[in-house]
Design a protein that fits this description.
alpha/beta, Rossmann fold, Four Helix Bundle (Hemerythrin (Met), subunit A), 2 domains, five-stranded parallel beta sheet, 10 helices, 8% strand
Length: 331
Protein backbone atom coordinates (compact mmCIF):
# COMPACT_ATOMS: atom_id res chain seq x y z
CA UNK A 1 0.00 0.00 0.00
CA UNK A 2 1.23 3.50 -0.78
CA UNK A 3 2.61 5.39 2.21
CA UNK A 4 4.17 8.55 0.78
CA UNK A 5 2.69 10.56 -2.10
CA UNK A 6 4.59 13.16 -4.10
CA UNK A 7 2.34 15.84 -5.62
CA UNK A 8 3.95 18.24 -8.15
CA UNK A 9 2.10 21.55 -8.51
CA UNK A 10 2.18 24.50 -10.87
CA UNK A 11 0.33 27.73 -10.12
CA UNK A 12 -2.71 27.11 -12.30
CA UNK A 13 -6.25 26.90 -10.93
CA UNK A 14 -6.47 23.16 -11.58
CA UNK A 15 -3.60 22.41 -9.20
CA UNK A 16 -5.89 22.79 -6.21
CA UNK A 17 -8.13 20.06 -7.63
CA UNK A 18 -5.10 17.77 -7.73
CA UNK A 19 -4.30 18.75 -4.14
CA UNK A 20 -7.82 17.89 -3.02
CA UNK A 21 -7.80 14.49 -4.68
CA UNK A 22 -4.29 13.61 -3.54
CA UNK A 23 -5.02 14.62 0.06
CA UNK A 24 -8.25 12.62 0.16
CA UNK A 25 -6.42 9.60 -1.24
CA UNK A 26 -3.66 9.98 1.35
CA UNK A 27 -6.25 10.25 4.10
CA UNK A 28 -7.86 7.00 2.95
CA UNK A 29 -4.48 5.23 2.77
CA UNK A 30 -3.09 6.70 5.98
CA UNK A 31 -0.23 8.12 3.92
CA UNK A 32 1.71 11.40 4.03
CA UNK A 33 2.03 13.91 1.19
CA UNK A 34 4.97 15.93 -0.11
CA UNK A 35 4.14 18.85 -2.39
CA UNK A 36 6.78 20.10 -4.83
CA UNK A 37 6.87 23.10 -7.14
CA UNK A 38 9.57 23.21 -9.80
CA UNK A 39 10.24 26.76 -10.92
CA UNK A 40 10.23 27.23 -14.68
CA UNK A 41 12.05 30.49 -15.42
CA UNK A 42 10.57 30.67 -18.93
CA UNK A 43 6.94 30.24 -17.91
CA UNK A 44 4.51 33.15 -17.95
CA UNK A 45 2.11 33.19 -14.99
CA UNK A 46 -1.52 32.68 -16.02
CA UNK A 47 -4.29 35.25 -15.67
CA UNK A 48 -2.01 38.29 -15.54
CA UNK A 49 -4.16 40.64 -17.63
CA UNK A 50 -5.15 43.63 -15.56
CA UNK A 51 -3.05 42.54 -12.60
CA UNK A 52 -1.03 45.16 -10.71
CA UNK A 53 2.31 46.01 -12.27
CA UNK A 54 5.09 43.65 -11.21
CA UNK A 55 2.72 40.70 -10.77
CA UNK A 56 4.71 38.69 -13.30
CA UNK A 57 7.77 39.14 -11.08
CA UNK A 58 6.09 37.84 -7.94
CA UNK A 59 7.09 34.21 -8.37
CA UNK A 60 8.37 33.84 -4.82
CA UNK A 61 5.17 35.25 -3.32
CA UNK A 62 2.90 33.20 -5.58
CA UNK A 63 4.81 29.99 -4.92
CA UNK A 64 4.62 30.54 -1.18
CA UNK A 65 0.86 31.06 -1.52
CA UNK A 66 0.45 27.92 -3.64
CA UNK A 67 2.23 25.64 -1.18
CA UNK A 68 0.64 27.26 1.88
CA UNK A 69 -2.79 26.59 0.37
CA UNK A 70 -1.86 22.98 -0.37
CA UNK A 71 -0.55 22.36 3.14
CA UNK A 72 -3.64 24.01 4.68
CA UNK A 73 -5.92 21.65 2.75
CA UNK A 74 -3.87 18.66 3.91
CA UNK A 75 -3.80 19.72 7.56
CA UNK A 76 -7.55 20.39 7.50
CA UNK A 77 -8.05 16.70 6.74
CA UNK A 78 -5.41 15.51 9.19
CA UNK A 79 -2.89 14.44 6.53
CA UNK A 80 0.83 14.84 7.39
CA UNK A 81 2.55 16.96 4.75
CA UNK A 82 5.58 18.99 3.75
CA UNK A 83 6.51 21.08 0.73
CA UNK A 84 9.55 22.23 -1.20
CA UNK A 85 10.38 24.64 -4.04
CA UNK A 86 13.07 23.51 -6.47
CA UNK A 87 14.72 24.84 -9.61
CA UNK A 88 15.47 22.91 -12.78
CA UNK A 89 15.52 23.15 -16.55
CA UNK A 90 13.86 19.73 -16.83
CA UNK A 91 10.99 19.66 -14.29
CA UNK A 92 10.19 15.98 -14.87
CA UNK A 93 13.74 15.02 -13.89
CA UNK A 94 13.51 17.15 -10.75
CA UNK A 95 10.19 15.51 -9.88
CA UNK A 96 11.58 11.99 -10.28
CA UNK A 97 14.76 12.83 -8.38
CA UNK A 98 12.70 14.32 -5.52
CA UNK A 99 10.49 11.22 -5.40
CA UNK A 100 13.58 8.97 -5.11
CA UNK A 101 15.31 11.06 -2.45
CA UNK A 102 12.13 11.52 -0.40
CA UNK A 103 11.22 7.84 -0.44
CA UNK A 104 7.91 8.45 -2.20
CA UNK A 105 6.12 5.41 -3.61
CA UNK A 106 3.43 7.17 -5.70
CA UNK A 107 3.45 10.36 -7.76
CA UNK A 108 0.08 12.13 -8.15
CA UNK A 109 -0.01 14.57 -11.06
CA UNK A 110 -2.53 16.73 -12.87
CA UNK A 111 -3.29 15.73 -16.48
CA UNK A 112 -1.91 19.07 -17.65
CA UNK A 113 0.85 21.57 -17.26
CA UNK A 114 0.43 25.32 -17.64
CA UNK A 115 1.46 25.31 -21.30
CA UNK A 116 -1.15 22.67 -22.12
CA UNK A 117 -3.84 23.67 -19.65
CA UNK A 118 -6.45 24.36 -22.31
CA UNK A 119 -5.62 21.32 -24.39
CA UNK A 120 -7.09 17.84 -24.22
CA UNK A 121 -3.82 15.91 -24.09
CA UNK A 122 -1.64 15.17 -21.10
CA UNK A 123 0.79 17.90 -20.17
CA UNK A 124 4.38 17.44 -21.29
CA UNK A 125 5.83 17.01 -17.79
CA UNK A 126 3.17 14.44 -16.85
CA UNK A 127 3.91 12.50 -20.03
CA UNK A 128 7.65 12.54 -19.34
CA UNK A 129 7.23 11.32 -15.78
CA UNK A 130 4.96 8.54 -17.04
CA UNK A 131 7.38 7.62 -19.81
CA UNK A 132 10.26 7.24 -17.35
CA UNK A 133 8.47 4.29 -15.80
CA UNK A 134 10.48 4.54 -12.58
CA UNK A 135 7.56 4.39 -10.15
CA UNK A 136 3.76 4.37 -10.10
CA UNK A 137 2.09 7.56 -11.33
CA UNK A 138 -1.55 8.43 -10.73
CA UNK A 139 -2.88 11.04 -13.17
CA UNK A 140 -5.65 12.95 -11.41
CA UNK A 141 -8.81 13.53 -13.40
CA UNK A 142 -10.16 17.03 -13.87
CA UNK A 143 -13.60 18.08 -12.67
CA UNK A 144 -16.25 15.88 -14.30
CA UNK A 145 -16.81 17.15 -17.80
CA UNK A 146 -14.35 19.93 -17.14
CA UNK A 147 -17.28 22.05 -15.89
CA UNK A 148 -18.01 23.71 -12.57
CA UNK A 149 -20.94 25.84 -11.52
CA UNK A 150 -20.51 29.58 -12.17
CA UNK A 151 -20.51 30.23 -8.40
CA UNK A 152 -17.34 28.15 -8.04
CA UNK A 153 -15.70 30.19 -10.79
CA UNK A 154 -16.81 33.40 -9.06
CA UNK A 155 -15.22 32.36 -5.75
CA UNK A 156 -11.99 31.28 -7.43
CA UNK A 157 -11.84 34.48 -9.50
CA UNK A 158 -12.32 36.64 -6.42
CA UNK A 159 -9.59 34.68 -4.63
CA UNK A 160 -7.28 35.44 -7.56
CA UNK A 161 -8.08 39.16 -7.45
CA UNK A 162 -7.34 39.45 -3.73
CA UNK A 163 -4.23 37.28 -4.13
CA UNK A 164 -2.93 39.49 -6.96
CA UNK A 165 -3.10 42.57 -4.74
CA UNK A 166 -1.34 40.80 -1.87
CA UNK A 167 1.35 39.34 -4.16
CA UNK A 168 2.04 42.77 -5.62
CA UNK A 169 2.07 44.38 -2.16
CA UNK A 170 4.58 41.85 -0.80
CA UNK A 171 6.69 42.22 -3.93
CA UNK A 172 6.69 45.99 -3.45
CA UNK A 173 7.77 45.66 0.19
CA UNK A 174 10.37 42.99 -0.53
CA UNK A 175 12.08 45.30 -3.02
CA UNK A 176 11.59 48.61 -1.21
CA UNK A 177 14.73 50.56 -0.36
CA UNK A 178 15.05 51.14 3.40
CA UNK A 179 16.36 54.67 2.73
CA UNK A 180 13.05 55.70 1.18
CA UNK A 181 10.55 55.60 4.08
CA UNK A 182 7.66 57.04 2.08
CA UNK A 183 7.77 54.37 -0.63
CA UNK A 184 4.50 54.11 -2.56
CA UNK A 185 2.32 55.25 0.33
CA UNK A 186 -0.61 56.13 -1.94
CA UNK A 187 -0.42 52.73 -3.60
CA UNK A 188 -0.36 50.91 -0.27
CA UNK A 189 -3.32 52.94 0.98
CA UNK A 190 -5.27 51.79 -2.08
CA UNK A 191 -4.20 48.19 -1.46
CA UNK A 192 -5.21 48.36 2.20
CA UNK A 193 -8.59 49.85 1.24
CA UNK A 194 -9.15 47.03 -1.29
CA UNK A 195 -8.17 44.33 1.22
CA UNK A 196 -10.66 45.68 3.75
CA UNK A 197 -13.59 46.56 1.51
CA UNK A 198 -13.66 43.97 -1.26
CA UNK A 199 -13.45 40.63 0.61
CA UNK A 200 -15.51 41.70 3.60
CA UNK A 201 -18.27 43.51 1.71
CA UNK A 202 -18.63 41.40 -1.41
CA UNK A 203 -16.75 38.11 -1.33
CA UNK A 204 -17.16 36.76 2.20
CA UNK A 205 -20.98 36.88 2.20
CA UNK A 206 -20.97 34.56 -0.83
CA UNK A 207 -19.09 31.98 1.23
CA UNK A 208 -20.37 32.48 4.75
CA UNK A 209 -24.00 33.48 4.33
CA UNK A 210 -24.90 31.38 1.30
CA UNK A 211 -22.53 28.54 0.35
CA UNK A 212 -21.73 27.46 3.92
CA UNK A 213 -25.39 27.65 4.97
CA UNK A 214 -26.65 25.42 2.15
CA UNK A 215 -23.73 22.98 2.45
CA UNK A 216 -24.41 22.48 6.17
CA UNK A 217 -27.90 21.34 5.27
CA UNK A 218 -26.64 18.70 2.83
CA UNK A 219 -23.77 17.01 4.71
CA UNK A 220 -22.13 16.92 8.12
CA UNK A 221 -18.71 15.87 6.82
CA UNK A 222 -17.39 19.44 6.70
CA UNK A 223 -19.19 20.92 9.70
CA UNK A 224 -15.99 21.20 11.74
CA UNK A 225 -14.17 22.81 8.82
CA UNK A 226 -16.98 25.30 8.24
CA UNK A 227 -16.93 26.19 11.94
CA UNK A 228 -13.22 26.93 11.70
CA UNK A 229 -13.61 28.98 8.52
CA UNK A 230 -16.35 31.08 10.10
CA UNK A 231 -14.06 31.78 13.05
CA UNK A 232 -11.37 32.76 10.58
CA UNK A 233 -13.73 35.21 8.88
CA UNK A 234 -14.05 37.14 12.13
CA UNK A 235 -10.30 37.15 12.72
CA UNK A 236 -9.68 38.17 9.12
CA UNK A 237 -11.85 41.26 9.52
CA UNK A 238 -9.76 42.51 12.43
CA UNK A 239 -6.48 41.73 10.68
CA UNK A 240 -7.55 43.48 7.46
CA UNK A 241 -8.64 46.62 9.27
CA UNK A 242 -5.36 46.64 11.23
CA UNK A 243 -3.44 46.71 7.93
CA UNK A 244 -4.95 50.09 7.07
CA UNK A 245 -3.86 51.43 10.45
CA UNK A 246 -0.36 50.06 9.93
CA UNK A 247 -0.04 51.84 6.57
CA UNK A 248 -1.00 55.13 8.22
CA UNK A 249 1.48 54.53 11.05
CA UNK A 250 4.16 53.89 8.44
CA UNK A 251 3.21 57.04 6.50
CA UNK A 252 3.76 59.27 9.55
CA UNK A 253 6.88 57.50 10.73
CA UNK A 254 5.35 55.54 13.62
CA UNK A 255 6.02 52.15 12.02
CA UNK A 256 9.07 50.86 10.17
CA UNK A 257 9.10 49.28 6.73
CA UNK A 258 9.94 45.97 8.41
CA UNK A 259 6.94 46.22 10.73
CA UNK A 260 4.64 46.97 7.81
CA UNK A 261 6.11 44.07 5.84
CA UNK A 262 5.56 41.70 8.77
CA UNK A 263 1.92 42.83 9.08
CA UNK A 264 1.20 42.30 5.38
CA UNK A 265 3.03 38.97 5.32
CA UNK A 266 1.12 37.71 8.37
CA UNK A 267 -2.19 38.68 6.81
CA UNK A 268 -1.23 37.16 3.45
CA UNK A 269 -0.18 33.85 5.05
CA UNK A 270 -3.47 33.75 6.96
CA UNK A 271 -5.32 34.42 3.68
CA UNK A 272 -3.48 31.66 1.79
CA UNK A 273 -4.39 29.15 4.48
CA UNK A 274 -8.01 30.27 4.42
CA UNK A 275 -8.15 30.00 0.62
CA UNK A 276 -6.53 26.55 0.78
CA UNK A 277 -9.26 25.28 3.08
CA UNK A 278 -11.98 26.77 0.87
CA UNK A 279 -10.56 25.59 -2.46
CA UNK A 280 -9.09 22.28 -1.29
CA UNK A 281 -11.78 21.08 1.13
CA UNK A 282 -15.03 23.05 1.00
CA UNK A 283 -15.49 23.56 -2.75
CA UNK A 284 -14.76 19.88 -3.57
CA UNK A 285 -17.29 18.87 -0.88
CA UNK A 286 -19.80 21.34 -2.26
CA UNK A 287 -19.35 20.02 -5.78
CA UNK A 288 -19.91 16.50 -4.45
CA UNK A 289 -22.92 17.07 -2.19
CA UNK A 290 -24.81 20.02 -3.69
CA UNK A 291 -27.27 19.51 -6.50
CA UNK A 292 -27.67 21.79 -9.48
CA UNK A 293 -30.80 23.13 -7.78
CA UNK A 294 -28.73 23.95 -4.67
CA UNK A 295 -26.16 25.84 -6.72
CA UNK A 296 -28.85 27.73 -8.57
CA UNK A 297 -30.49 28.64 -5.25
CA UNK A 298 -27.16 29.97 -3.93
CA UNK A 299 -26.60 32.04 -7.06
CA UNK A 300 -30.17 33.38 -6.99
CA UNK A 301 -29.80 34.35 -3.32
CA UNK A 302 -26.40 35.96 -3.86
CA UNK A 303 -27.74 38.09 -6.72
CA UNK A 304 -31.18 38.90 -5.33
CA UNK A 305 -32.15 42.61 -5.18
CA UNK A 306 -30.63 44.27 -2.15
CA UNK A 307 -27.71 41.84 -1.80
CA UNK A 308 -24.13 43.19 -2.03
CA UNK A 309 -23.45 41.33 -5.26
CA UNK A 310 -26.60 42.71 -6.89
CA UNK A 311 -25.33 46.22 -6.24
CA UNK A 312 -23.88 47.05 -9.63
CA UNK A 313 -22.46 50.35 -8.41
CA UNK A 314 -20.53 48.59 -5.63
CA UNK A 315 -19.08 46.03 -8.02
CA UNK A 316 -18.02 48.80 -10.41
CA UNK A 317 -16.42 50.65 -7.50
CA UNK A 318 -14.35 47.61 -6.52
CA UNK A 319 -13.26 47.07 -10.11
CA UNK A 320 -12.29 50.72 -10.39
CA UNK A 321 -10.28 50.42 -7.18
CA UNK A 322 -8.48 47.35 -8.55
CA UNK A 323 -7.77 49.25 -11.78
CA UNK A 324 -6.47 52.22 -9.77
CA UNK A 325 -4.08 49.91 -7.91
CA UNK A 326 -2.80 48.60 -11.25
CA UNK A 327 -2.35 52.15 -12.56
CA UNK A 328 -0.57 53.35 -9.42
CA UNK A 329 1.71 50.33 -9.51
CA UNK A 330 2.72 51.11 -13.11
CA UNK A 331 3.91 54.65 -12.34
Amino acid sequence: MYRHLLVPLDDSDLSIETVSKAVNLARTLGARVSFVHVHDHDAVPPDTDGMPNGYRATHRERTHALLTKAEAAARALGVPCDSVVLEGNAPHEVILDTARKSGCDLIVMAPHDRKAIRGETLGSQTLRVLAAGEMPVLVSSVQDGGQVHPMVDIIRREHRALAAVLHAWLHLLNHAHPQHPTVATELMRAMAHYVVKFPLALHRPSEHDYLFFVLRGRTAVVHAELDELERQHERERAMAEALGDEVEHYAIGQATLEQLHDAVETYAHFTWEHMGRIEGVVLPAAQRYLSEADWNEIQATVTRPGSPRANGEAQVAYQQLFTRIAQLAST
